[in-house]
Each structure stands twice: as structure tokens, then as C-alpha cells.
Amino acid sequence: MNHNQQSTEARHDDDPALSEFLASLMDYTPTIPDELVEHYLAKSGFQCPDVRLIRLVAVATQKFVAEVAGDALQQCKARQASIVKDKRDKQQKDKRLILTMEDLSKALREHGVNVKHQEYFADSPSTGMDPASREE
Amino acid sequence: MPCSKTLYLGVRAFDEVKTESKKKKSQSKTSKSSTMKIKSKSSKLEQRNKKIPPLPSSSSSSSNPSEFAFAITRIAVSQICQSVGYRKTHLSALETLTDIATKYLRGIAASASSSAASSNRTQSNLFDIVQALHDLHSVQGFPGASDLHRTDYCLLRSSVLLEITNFVRNTVETPFDRPIPRREEDPTEQKRICDGCWRNHTGAPHVPRWLPEFPDRSKCGVVGSVVEKRRKEEELWENSLGESKNGGGSVIENGDVVGVVVMKKKRELGAKRGKVRFRIGGIEEVKEREAGGGVGLGVNFSRSGVCRGGKRVCLDSEKRRNGCEIEKFSVGTENDDHDDHDGNVVVGER
After folding, report:
1. B6-170, which class in CATH?
2. Domains of chain B, residue spans
3. Which of A69, B246, B257, B295 is least surrounded, with the fewest CB atoms within 10 Å of its CB?
4. Does the CB of A14 have a partner CB in chain B at under 8 Å?
């Protein structure tokens, strides 16, 4: 509701709002650093001297990642809420709020990305071995 | 559980770049100093970090720039995940999300640059970016997508742009945690890396800055020597861009016979130019020359362009190759046939 109100307000005077937003990007520091964005933009043939537009791309990417991660978090919470309570207490300590492939692929599907991952994925040769025999 | 490796967000990513910058110590010393800064900054995080077993070295090594960029992106993505509310992640999930984020970024860039190119521009602007965002969001859909085809639709009112505005307004700013070492300090290093994203320093305005640097003139072998030879007499076109000279051409004297006016190709021609006049011995010769396409056949060309035996005038082939423009040749024939039978050619200069 609040969001809708904001958008209709901005629709009336979009030009000052837009220029104000672009000006605010000069002070805003996106999480994705400018150098990285410039690197990828230059690799794709994008050429633009304006820092604000580079930051706009950075913010857009940040928003996308944040949305995907937020969706995955909701998936994670919904999954954990469905577990029976006594089991949950046992698992609560180490398993809460971990970003997993399972949640991520569900979240990405909503954004049009189909992630197919292997059922079992070994990161290192020692994965799956008895913990006692591992050298760590 | 598909993946048994669980990481603490943010912290592990730092650790990986640390090991990686240690490996690069021999290449760039700047990264080492910035690593030290972070160590002191994130000492609290490191205490937690000690519980985690170290990763296998194969996954943390980064030898080329693209892997370095991927490692940086991974830190940024893990910071975003942390700000959303996650505390831990599986390595595979984080890498997948990083990969998707990179593809998204490159998708925006490719789409924006192609829409800029389709409107005859090399530099992208805000409209291109908004159009690219529309392209990428069209899978999911966005409010106002059905109005895109209308002629009075204004791209600046795009709801995607508005959502980004609201995102910036409502999200807590989490800057990237460390300065990124640029590897451009070392000049030898920079020449080695020809990645396409390093700037060239030629300074010519028509060369896009993302192109790799021009090779050294001295290393070009035969072509280089030709270029050097040419530059004694002329200037390259791009060098004359800066200052607009309107001085006349240089007169190349060769002996006492010929003075040919060679005009440099300039951006603006001089207002008043003189007539270049040839007087050639016989009228038959001139007729033959006009019919036969100018240059005499089978005659020994001298360097001055004048063949005494055949009484013909030809352009100096070397000068033509150099790309300079012979300004004007008007071959005037005089009525009196019998003078200048010794083949003197008079060339007026401007």
C-alpha cells in the first residue's frame, strides 16, 4: 500500500524525482564496487563516462541479488516452519538461515532462471568421509 | 543435504581473497598493504573464522583477472546476502548466486550497449539502461509493461526505475568492505595484461578507451620504419586534429627543375588558392596524355616526376602512397609550340 502511494506520487513529478535520484547516486555507495561494475561493463562493450549510470547498474544488480536472496530466505523460513517442533529445536542451532541450493533454485525460478544442480556435490575429496579421519 | 560445506557469509570470502592476494604478492605489492588493513578491521570476524576448516586450495586460487573479479563479486554477493538476513551459506549456492549476478550485470551491459549501437551511438545513456532493465525484467513482468509499445510512453517513468529508486531509498547502505587494489600501477604489468578493459593512453579522441593499447612503433619492423620515414615530412592525421593549421603545404624542391606544391590534407581548405600551371612542349604530347590516362608508358620515371625524354609529367608515386593530396593539377597548353622543346616543365606554385 505504501509502495503504491509512493509510486503514484512520484509519477506526478517524475522529472525532479528522477534527477534527484540520480544526484543521490553520487553519494550512495553500492555494495558492488564501481571498479567491478566497470570491469564487467567494459567487457561487454558498454561505454559510459558517467559514474551515476555505472552506479545505477550496480544498484540494479544489487537489487536483483537482494530480491533473489530475500525470496530464498522466505523459502528457507517456510520450510523450517513446517518441520515439527521437537525436531526443529534439535536442528535450530546449526541449520537456521543457511543459503542452500534448494531454496536458491526455487527463488531463481521465480526470476526466470532455471538452476539444475547435482543431487550430490562433493566439494573436496574428503567430503563425506568420516569426520574423525579428516585432517583438519 | 546436497552439499556439506557450510560457510559463514562474508568472513570466508575475505579469507579467500587474503590467501589469493598473498599469492599475488610478487605481482602487486599494493594488494598486500590493503590486506593488512582488513585484517585489523575484521579481527572479530576472524575469531569466528577459526572454527571453520580451511578450504581446499584449488577453489581459492585465482590466477587470472576473471577469477579475481569473480572472487570480488562473491564478496559483494555474500555481503548482500548478509544484509538480507542470512548468516551462513553453502559454497555451491553462493557461487551459483554469484554467477547469476555476474550474468545479470553483463546482460544489462550487453543489452544497453546494443541498444546504444542501434541508435548510432557508442556511449550508452540512461535510456539504454532502462531499456536493458526492461528486457531483463520482462521474464518476471513489471507494472506498465503493457504500455511499452505506446508512442507516448516515456522511459523515464518506468516502474523498474521507480523500484530501484525506492530500493536505494529504503535500503541501508552497505559499502564494499575493502578498497580494491588496482593493478595499473606497474607499467610492465599493465602491458602484459591485454584484457580489453584497460585504458589506452594515446589521448586521441576518436579511439575508444576500452580498446587495448597500440603496439610500440619501434617494434613494428618494416611497417614501423615506413611510418618513421613518412613522419619526417608529414604529420599523421590524428596529430593534426588538435591544432588546426591553415598554413600552406610544403614545397619539395628537387634540384632546380620542379617545385611541386603538396598540400596537406587539412580540415578546412584555404580560401584562396593559386593555379598550378604546366607548360609542356608539344600539343600532341598533351593530347596523347589526356587520351592515354596520364602517365606515360614505358618511360623511365625519374624521382622528380619529370621524364626528360618523353616530356611527360607523372605524379610521384611515393608521395601518392603517403596519402597526401595533390591539390590541383591543371595542365595548360600554350599555343606556341616551338618554345620549350627541351622539355622544361614549369610548375607554378600557389
Report:
1. mainly alpha
2. 6-170, 250-332
3. B246
4. yes
